[in-house]
Amino acid sequence: MNESEILPQIDRHCTDVLGEVGGPAMAALVRRGHTIAPVGGFDVPAGRSHLGGSPQLEPGTPWPEVEGIPLSLLAVLDTGALAPWLGGDLPVRPGLLNFFYLDPDLPWSEYKHIDTEAPSAWRVIAADPEPAVSPLAPGAARVYERRAVKADPILTLPGNWEHAVGTLDLGPGKVPALEAMEIRTTWGPSAPDDDKTSGHRAFGWPWLLQGGVVGDGDVHLLQLDSDDHWMWGDVGVLYFTIPADALRAGDFSRAVCRMDCC
């Protein structure tokens, strides 16, 4: 993707929508990210990245669970394959990132006592690619079909309800969240023309279904949309974020997962 051509387009667009003061401030929030989609035809897989299937963990890593219920492996991101585009937006290269979540299709009676909004309901586990192995899931774990994925570079702006947008100074009487509703948030060859399609994403700014997702000082790791393989609530979206200082330290125990649905 030719970033030098797209960045001036973003600057002009933001200035047209938000004015000479707020426009450049919005454009300065641009972050690099990737759209994530199953490979097809002549697509090149993003290293060892995939949706579903088995995790890629260092030998001896216990399978994550909550109160005896094994979590489900949702995705693996090969940050080595993403790093060339992300550059400084990926301050460390943690190798393989495994994303686990409590299976939303479990019978309610089995986990109604579990706080599904607590960190125990999800896990992000980093692994060194060199010794990583693919352990078999415990018998009770839900295993989704494995789908190798491609990762296409995009440039992203925050959605209008993100914290970063709310702090913009657009002038007297202007509410940033309302003024920014017409901002196009996704740019690049793989970006949807109407900017209304969510899909799966890694890093950058997420596509917002409802409210803001990325808090002050947070980094967006992964966005998983509802599709033919899984459903988050009522056709919702699952988001994983992490504080920037935790990402730099490689402390993925501080990752946060959030589900938004219609």
UniProtKB/TrEMBL annotation:
Enumerate the SUPFAM superfamilies for this protein.
Answer: Hypothetical protein YwqG
* Protein name, per record: YwqG family protein
Determine the domain of life of the protein's source.
Answer: Bacteria
Xref: Pfam families: DUF1963 (PF09234)
